[in-house]
Amino acid sequence: MKYANRMEGLQGKRTSAWDIHYAAQQARANGENVIVLSVGDPDFATPEVIVESAVQALRSGDTHYSEVAGRTVLREAIARNHARATGLAVTADHVIVVAGAQNGLFAVSQCLLEAGDEVIVPDPMYLTYEASVRAAGATLIPVPVNLANGFHLDGDALEAAITPRTKAIFFATPCNPTGVVMPRADLERIALLARQHDLWVLSDEVYGDLTFEREHLSIASLSEMAARTVTLGSLSKSHAMPGWRMGWVAGPPELIGHLERLALCMLYGLPGFIQQAALTALEHSEQIVGEMREIYRRRRDLVYARLSTVPRLRCLLPEAGMFMMIDVSGTGLEAVDFTWQLFRLQGVSLLDASAFGDTAAGYVRLGFVVDEARLAEACERITAFVDALDRLRAARA
Q1: In this structure, which CATH number among 1.25.40.10, 2.60.40.10, 3.40.640.10, 3.30.110.30 belongs to the domain 48-284?
Q2: Where are the beta strands (DSSP E) in the chain?
Q3: Would you tell me how many other CB atoms lie within 10 Å of the CB of residue 29?
Q4: What is the separation, in whole angstroms, between the first and last Cα of the chain?
Q5: Is the predicted pLDDT of residue 119 greater than 70, yes or no?
Q6: Integer Cα distance of 80 and 245 in angstroms
Q7: Each residue's pLDDT tens digit, 345-357
Q8: Where are the domains of the chain?
Q9: Mean pLDDT of the 134-162 span
Q10: Nearest by Cα to 274 from 58, 93, 61, 48
């Protein structure tokens, strides 16, 4: 039997990158002493106040269909948060609840893009961007960032990539995998290009609450950008809720209406008890997010202190999030070989960062997703692996 050709666009290097993670999960299930740092799923449980809220909702019979766009009270809470972040007059009509930011990215792509359109995206980018764009029949145009400037935006390259077919600019700030937080100057450059060329902008701000030294700024807050900006948000990282699949899209009400019609076909509303848990999470955000941010800051600092002094490794200190990019090209191994050899010899799984884009070739991504003791052990295993490579190289010489 024949399948639709567009299904081929959902496969490739960006999706096969997860193979090492699946292998690590299987090894752990088999009782092997592996340390899985290859995906952004933190080790700590969802805060008890959020869990209890969902439990109480279930016990009270909150198991029926819910509003397709999300309950008004939850959308209003999200709108208030977005209004505080942007200074805009945002209401529930500007928000739709989705099953995680990835679902939102896919849905927005189907609403904004058509066959023949081009979307320019700073490279490296999150793995599912390309598949979401391709599924809409459009073409993703990766634009390399400035490696010399720590993976920050190359505004000139972005401008040069615009063609008459360009429909939108997609980006993430803070960025997964690099941990880069876009400064105002870079956002202003993107905004200027969007206004000049009448482009949509999709801003993935899933890690916006988890910044360290540099504060997060939403591009929707800039002059004349609210009407052309779509913002993705999620509770997965900031509130330790990845398995709850709770996210949202904020944008112009007309777009939200289109997304609601699409959600009617795809999702038909998130379960009510999950929405109640999300509302509770937002009500306790200040404490929960503050604690999460400090945990990730401590873990980041531990990893950087232990691995930045290892010969042949070069660590980039992330400005936000739960990942660190490490340049392993000095070891003489391709990043994919480094990750698989490290996993097989030392039981630590990292991700080959080239899956996020060619600009990240030679880098691996390490997640701060286990406690500090296990992170320290992982660093020791990585150091031992690199030392063994040096000894082997010396013996061959």
Answers
A1: 3.40.640.10
A2: 35-36, 95-98, 118-123, 139-144, 166-172, 200-204, 229-234, 247-250, 314-316, 323-327, 348-349, 351-352, 363-367
A3: 9
A4: 55
A5: yes
A6: 21
A7: 999 999 999 999 9
A8: 5-45+287-392, 48-284
A9: 94
A10: 58
